[in-house]
Design brief:
Strand order of the largest sheet: 1-2-3
Number of domains: 2
Radius of gyration: 28 Å
Number of helices: 8
Helix content: 55-70%
Shape: elongated
């Protein structure tokens, strides 16, 4: 026969009301509320991403005033990233998402209800967008590559004007003397 202390500990682990219908109803109601709110959050996140992309998409006529559409779009997205605190990559995804779907209703009809932004980006939609071109000079040159290359160019009578990263490769713009 269990001791009083052990019986009390078991009662705390499995309180007597746990099997009561009223308690089961509370548990079901809370779980249903959590599920509903998470679903709404997922849908609203996807809607927000589409709206961000739509805002950039609709501004094309203004963006084109600042150079070729592709170059100007890259500059605008780079600046937007700084001003609104969303990464360039995410802004490109939002824009590509909007370019692929003309309306949010189309997305709601095409994809299952439990879809998340992460699943859309990684499993369902083939996003094709340019990678941002970053100035390498803003990053620390921990391996001394830039200093080494500059020395080599000076030996040849040249000078590095600009260093950029494109598709993971470093490109140097050389100015000859």
């Amino acid at each position: 026969m269990p001791s009083k202390k052990l019986t009390k500990e078991l009662a705390e682990l499995n309180p007597p009301f746990i099997e009561e219908p009223w308690y089961q109803n509370i548990v079901e109601d809370i779980r249903a509320s959590i599920t509903e709110i998470l679903y709404i959050r997922q849908i609203e996140t996807i809607r927000l991403k589409w709206e961000i992309g739509n805002t950039i998409f609709m501004a094309r006529k203004y963006i084109e005033k600042y150079g070729s559409l592709e170059d100007a779009k890259n500059n605008v997205i780079r600046q937007l990233s700084k001003d609104v605190g969303i990464s360039e990559r995410e802004l490109y995804r939002c824009l590509a998402f909007r370019e692929k779907f003309d309306s949010f209703e189309e997305i709601e009809q095409k994809f299952p209800k439990n879809i998340s932004w992460h699943k859309l980006v990684n499993q369902y939609v083939d996003f094709e967008f340019p990678r941002p071109v970053l100035d390498i000079l803003i990053f620390p040159d921990e391996f001394g590559l830039l200093r080494w290359w500059e020395a080599k160019e000076k030996e040849k009578g040249g000078e590095i004007k600009k260093a950029i990263v494109k598709s993971g490769e470093i490109e140097f713009e050389i100015k000859k003397k």
